[in-house]
Specification:
single chain; about 425 residues; alpha/beta; Rossmann fold; seven-stranded parallel beta sheet; 17 helices; 13 strands; about 15% strand
Length: about 425
């Protein structure tokens, strides 16, 4: 069996969506002839993976700031800043605190906040590669420090290298820094990727952007996926209520539950629905604007937030729900991008209600897999909900009609097989 070194800052049990893709590769690549070795930063707890994991030290770029502000050294700085602003009742995105932090972060966190991991990862990678034969290497971002580490190892050992972009680098739609920094960082991106043997990303629009910037490089599109083992988890009893469940973070201005709230308000007012039957539940960082909007539509007793819960519990809540809520991003430039959430929902085997945006790849996926419904206006959502609620009242539950054969195309096993094909091509 051939061996691949996967350079990734995020890996379970580090709590981040970015951990799921490298975890899936580590788990399923061996089925296609590739043994995975993980090079990552020191993990918060023991990992459950069976593959070899090399953990290294790392320096927290924002450690001084956290200590100065009296924040938790183990938690994300910006998330804690958001909580601090909430306590201080600062609502503006252009407060004095923001004006101070933005330029400081732009300089300090170059090229990303995980840059303090680079030297330790390169040292550990050097030591490992001197002792063990490795046939290829994958680096996955964000953070882009993973690619910088892989580039240094490539320079020294000449190992075939595949750079995987879960998020684009300087071409990211939501690049957070100034135009001046983007110009400087674009040069770093070109220099870093010059030695990569192939590039991978998660959607066709992203692949087109990568190909235009890194001319002459083979670029492959491989979507994220769900863990098939999670999809085969034991069934749980569905809730007695007509539950609509959302799991994950919410992004105000980019995701909009308003069509859902309007539809529910109207259906309850018309007595098509009974409020005693209906529960909309959000699991994730609590957002005050959700409560305000729900109250504005008279849904205080229907819409509930339960805060952040362990991933295991979030998956259980998905499987027991009558309907899963997917809030698509409103930016039309996002129409070619898959939300990582949609793959997790596929594993739950419950009907998905996607709200927002125009026709996009998420709409196409739900149509192909028959795993759910899409509505962009309150009227469309109202029609979908009325149908689902009628089925719930008649049959006692909302039936699931997903096409298993089509859905399995979006599993991590399929993802790993496609990565294996890329690894085979660059390592010949």
């Amino acid at each position: 069996m051939k061996r691949v070194l996967i350079v990734t800052y995020y890996f379970p049990p580090r709590p981040a969506v970015g951990s799921l893709r490298p975890a899936g590769l580590a788990k399923y690549l061996p089925e296609f002839g590739w043994e995975a070795v993980i090079l990552t930063a020191k993990l918060p707890n023991k990992t459950a993976t069976e593959c070899k994991v090399i953990e290294t030290r790392y320096d927290d770029t924002f450690g001084f700031a956290k200590r100065y502000l009296g924040l938790d050294s183990e938690q994300n700085l910006m998330a804690q800043i958001a909580q601090l602003k909430k306590k201080l009742r600062i609502r503006s995105e252009k407060s004095v605190l923001d004006l101070l932090l933005t330029p400081w972060g732009e300089i300090t966190a170059y090229p990303d906040p995980q840059k303090g991991w680079r030297s330790y990862a390169v040292e550990a990678g050097n030591e490992f590669l001197q002792q063990v034969n490795v046939d290829a290497m994958i680096s996955t971002s964000s953070p882009v420090t993973s690619h910088i580490v892989a580039r240094e190892l490539k320079d020294k050992f000449g190992i075939p290298w595949v750079a995987d972009f879960r998020d684009l680098w300087t071409q990211n739609l939501y690049y957070p820094y100034s135009p001046i920094r983007r110009v400087i960082e674009k040069r770093l991106e070109l220099k870093t990727m010059y030695k990569a043997d192939a590039l991978v990303t998660v959607s066709e629009p992203a692949a087109q952007k990568l190909g235009a910037l890194h001319r002459g490089k083979p670029v492959h599109m491989i979507t994220n996926g769900f863990d098939p083992e999670e999809a085969s988890s034991p069934d749980v009893d569905l809730t007695d209520e007509f539950t609509i469940t959302y799991t994950g973070n919410l992004y105000p201005g980019k995701q909009d539950p308003e069509p859902l709230f309007i539809a529910l308000r109207d259906l309850l007012a018309q007595r098509v629905m009974d409020a005693r039957d209906v529960l909309v539940q959000f699991y994730g960082a609590e957002a005050g604007w959700i409560d305000k909007r729900a109250e504005r539509h008279g849904l205080r007793d229907v819409v509930k937030q339960f805060g952040i819960v362990p991933r295991r519990l979030a998956l259980e809540k998905q499987r027991e729900s009558q309907v899963l809520l997917l809030l698509k991003w409103n930016d039309p430039r996002e129409r070619g991008y898959y939300s990582a959430k949609i793959f997790e929902y596929l594993a739950a085997k419950r009907p998905i209600l996607a709200i927002g945006g125009v026709d996009d790849v998420a709409s196409e996926l739900l149509d192909k897999t028959r795993a759910g419904f899409c509505g962009s206006t309150a009227e469309e959502v109202k029609g979908i909900l009325e149908e689902l609620y009628r089925e719930y009242k008649t049959a006692g539950e909302v039936g699931y009609k997903g096409d298993a054969t089509e859905i399995n195309r979006y599993s991590q096993r399929e993802m790993a097989q496609r990565f294996a094909e890329v690894l085979d091509s660059v390592s010949r």
